[in-house]
Input
Amino acid sequence: MATQAQGSGPVSAVLMAGLAGLVISLAIAFMNLLSGGHSAFNTGSDGVSWGLPVVNYVFFALTSTGLTLVSSLAMTFGNKGWYPIAKRCVWLSLVTLVAGFASLALELGHPFRMLWAIPLNAQLVSPLNWMGIFYAVFLVLGILKFMRIHNGDWNSSTSKQIGVAALVTELLAGGMLGMAFGAMAMRPMWYGNLVPLYFILTAACTGAAFAMLVTYLSYGSEEAMPGQVRSLMQGALPTAFAGLLGITILVIGYRTVIGLWSNADGLQVWDTIVASPWFWIEAALLIGAFWLLLQRRALALASVMVIGGFFIDRYEFVIGGQLLPLFKGSWVPDLIAYTPSTTEWMLTLMAFSIVLVGWALGERMFNLGAVPRD
Amino acid sequence: MEILKKLISRRRFLQVSGAGTAAGAAVVGSGGVGIGGLSTLTEAQAATVDGNTVVTKSICAQCPARCGIDVYTTNGKVHAIYGNAGHPIANGKGCPKMHLGTYILYDPDRFKGPMKRTNAKKGRNEDPQFVPISWEEAYQTVADRMNALRDKGESHRFGLFFGRGWGATDVGVTLAPMAKLYGSPNIGIGHSSMCSDGSVLAKQCTDGNASYSSYDYRNANYLLIFGANFLESFRPYNNNLQVWGYIRGEKAPKTRVTAVDVHMNQTLAASDRALLVKPGTDGALALAIAHVILTEGLWDRKFVGDFADGQNHFKAGEPVDAPFTEKWTLGLAEWWNVELKDRTPQWAAGVTTIPAELIVKTAREFATTKPAIALFERGAHNHSNGVLNGMAIHSLNALVGSLFAEGGLAYQMGPAYGPAPANPDEHLDDYANNGPHKAMARIDLKGHEDGYMFAKNMLQEVPKNHLANKPYKMDTVMFYMTNPVFSSPDATAWEKMLAEVFVIDTSPFPGETAVMADLILPDSTYLERWQDAPTYPFQGWPLAQIRTPAIKPLYDTKTFGNTLIEIGKRIKGPTSEYYAKLDNVENILRHLAKGFEASPGDNGVNSFESWVEKGVWYKKPYHWRQVRGEFFEWDGQGWNKPMSADDVKKNLLKTDSGKFEFKSSYLDHKRDWVIAKTGRDPAKFNFPHWEEPKHTGSGDLHFVSPKNAMHAEGRSANIPNAISLMQPTVGGRKHVCAEVHPSVAKAKGFKDGDRIRIKSTLGEITAIARVTELTRPDVIVLPFEHGHWAHGRWAKERGSHVDSIIDNQSDRISGMANYYTGKVSVEKA
Amino acid sequence: MAKWGMVIDLEKCTGCQACSTACQMENNRLPGENYQDVLYYTEGKQPTPTLKWFPRPCMHCEEPSCMHVCPTKATYKTEDGVVLIDWDKCIGCKYCMIACPYGVRFYTDEKALIEPNIKQVFKGDGDLSWNPPYKGPQQDPKHGVGIQPNGVVSKCNFCYHKISKAPKGVADLDESNPELVEYVPACVRTCAPKARYFGDLDNPNSQVSRLISDKQGTRLLDHTGNKPQVYYLTGGGAAGSAVPGTRSNKKA
Output
């Protein structure tokens, strides 16, 4: 095992910030959830059933998929130049998935019941069933894979097979998550057979953004990076990322225009989305990041912008699909007015904090910068 | 989440246990056995089977129709109410309000027993600081006050005001005699002038019946509905809904319906034609319809009569002098000459805003699609010209011969009750017969020259007169089933009066009157008490229903009838003997039921026991019928016995002339007073005629505050489930919204959902605006449900108190409070 | 085995909401938690606006999308054609609420529509999310009957505690028949204009089958493929003709 120089980045600071975020978010969230249960959420049967905690889940679960994709470039597809961030990405794919699950668990009515009820009753035609299975399987495979590479086994056939299996389950899981939305013909804002692809594409973007961000955080600056890392960060990574992001921006643009153009009942949500400043903030963040990536400048900032932009995108997708109430008549207005509650925001803070703490601990304990010994 | 909640609920449980029972008081349990050992008392257990369920026949209390209900009680808990299948009004069915009964019974804000006030200061924001007392102390306190007043010769200064209480066991036997025995003209002032006296007087002035009508909808082919929300609030609501399903869904031919109102409501929406009329102008519309009926020769000649030469001489704008021979009506030609000849559809279009061609169409349909009924309620008569509007509308029934006809309308027969346990006339002392109260006017100046000569009651005038010391000041007032501090026009005037007098409230609920009360004698709620109720006008034939307690009172409450009897027993002199004979409500009911022995009901009810078992006694048919201008009486087989003109006058058309009077002799009896007080043209003051309504206030919008379908006799405001369904047509589900037209919103610069300020001469309230095309551009609609400043945890401070900005103006003839005649202005709040 | 279904005659429906309040009473629903709701729609302009309404229970679909998406099979279809929720299996993921085209499902733990929250006034113990004194005696979590525990989804169950006790082989549960009245769903039993009928759709001689045939009963949103077992009689129009498109529902 080649040991790279320990990064000089602000790992401790991130750890402290993450811990602080975790303590604050958990304290507030638990206090509110204990006293009021899910009435601490602003979700309701009249409209938005899946609120911000589900947005968190979708965001982080897909980020996990994206990170697995990034790590696979080296480990499965043999692009050796990507090795310096591979272990970090594998670790982070586990951490982000845990962060997503944590948010979802606090959103579910009976998270512990889920553990036995899904396997024992498996509804084979439910996308959620398969999504749960695939993400659960990935969690196991991801842990196995990480243990392998942590112990220096990067390239044994078993290690490779585990890696391939992990990649496949992550793609299936992310795709299933897309299908959970895309199969909903009664909600035209979501409906479409390309939604799984859209999810995987955007997953890759957030995966790449996290990969880039934590790599920066690990070393603090490009100067502090080992050569291999620096060349990746100044070459293949931003280039590939820019290409990916550019295509994704186009896809988002077309989705939006199609939504605005169509007269179908339910798609008027797009009018509301576009009328919101958040849509334009998202556009500015993503286009700005694309430009920075092309310039290969301020990459940490670019990755933060991508993370922010896609968080908005996830929010608009998950919430937007529910804003038009189904058969609620005069009881509710044309579109649901939904703003996440403090408790819901605390779950977002919690999920991000889990990622920060998880990454920092990993950085401290598992030498995430390791690359295979050639 | 579940696991977290489990933890917390366990922790809470421990806290509650430690704190004793106080914290758990919100959860009430009857814990008592069922009435008469009917119900099986076992420990509550999951998935209880039907064997433990007892069904009690009772009667609903959510509207005056009083449907028979089946009350389901399992293990001492009432959990379901359905219509009594054997009850002719309910027929096993329910309206939306019927199912609210359990919430009322288990209302957590109910009073738990009698109490007295300990805070001498009174006001909205003064905590009365009630302390529990015994019933004995409560009765004696009231009796002492009454006795003291009587000793001073001031018994008239004791008043008892009531709302929806009727039936022999509260007003018939216990309340009315109290006025006579004790000696006060103010015992038994009802709320009818705030209810619907406008229609009662309109009928009294024309056909001589001081009553609401009974209707034979099922055989009618045309309904013309003015200001009565047939599918949301008109009674008997449950039966109206049943009728609607039949006449619109099954009957051949389908009954056609035209409905007139000031905003699009469910009745208008479900009708064939909706006429959105300018408020207060229903009479103009009816007059124009009458005009068309006459000019086009569509009147019922067999009932009304005809010109001697058989030609139609009614020509618009031209008086008639050709002789007209009237049969069952009086004054048609004269009416034409003084009024109708100029009431053309074109004229009415200018007054009502309804296009003339629609008026003509409606008139033709109404007069040619017989049997046809013109019916009306508060929307049409809650104005200064209310009686005139009502008379004009009711005259349409005469013109098309619907009175007492199959498919027409008639009046209600009373039940075959046995005599009460005691006769008050045998217990009158000298004071009762000759005391100073005999010379006293009623506090509401009903029947007084300075007040309202024709009115039945003038409850809304009480605070005004009291505060003005005219005719005098009250000393002690008692309330039963009415809360005028909330529901009266200019409601806040009551607060000033009640601060000055000793107030006894008998409501089981903490309403505004209770906040002002010195003594609380809580009634048992309707599922806990005995009571009877002869039917509200329904289909004419007699019907009497009985309320049997489904469970014993949850708390230390007493049926109002028994409270009154107990007070009566403590009044000095022979009054106490009378009430001792009454003994209690159940005893009265047993006596009343004796009448059924000789006159068993169609369902076999012939005793108290069978009455309780079936919940209702009734005896079809209605005894009289008009067929093509001839009247017949039921002879046991059919309407075969021809009636003489005298029979008709005695039983049906109870006017001086024994006919339907377009020219009202009833008004003519007080001709000078009417002309002096109303300024009406002496030539037409006693004919149905058009008079501009005198609107109160000076704003640009008519303020209309209708009753919604979910209004369960004053209690819905504190029933969360009712609140959530209160205003479905425009989506008011946490409170009611003010319905305003988009043009108003645009002009005043507010949007749907904005809070707006509604200003009248009396003050202002705020409400959430619902900008909707359902409402006329000159009207703002705000249902009266909310705006309580007491009344329970859910009612308090929800919505706006509409009656605080409605001026106290009444129709000088009927005394009907003009709830819907105010004009207001609105602005963004 | 019967395939229970409902027929609602929109020409007779008066929009009174007695179905909603009867359901709330029978099934102990929270304010706003209308298993059976009536929806109202406004279109047009003065002086000719239209006001329409549309009563909407659970459609108890032949192909229920809610059931297909439920990862734990907590939502299931009984042999007699009723879509139910097993509260012991429900994990509260709310995917069924997302997937139901008719918007008829409710999650237990939400902000109260009406404050103060009645669940806090009549507290439950967790197995019952609240426990009012007027609670009905029936409690059957396996069939989603009674008051739901915390953290689960609930919905109209066609008053399963009633209909499941009906004598076998009955063509229609007709409330006017004293022998059957106790087995009739609350909304059907109370419906004053008699706009509702409940019976066996598989029995061609049932009244519901007869009405669907005679009056061209149609189903709401048939294009979703859910195939409701609730049919509407519309006097000729398509089911949901009372339900305007959402785009035309713009407020001024």
User: Anything to note?
Assistant: The mean pLDDT of chain C is 92. DSSP finds seven helices and nine strands in chain C.
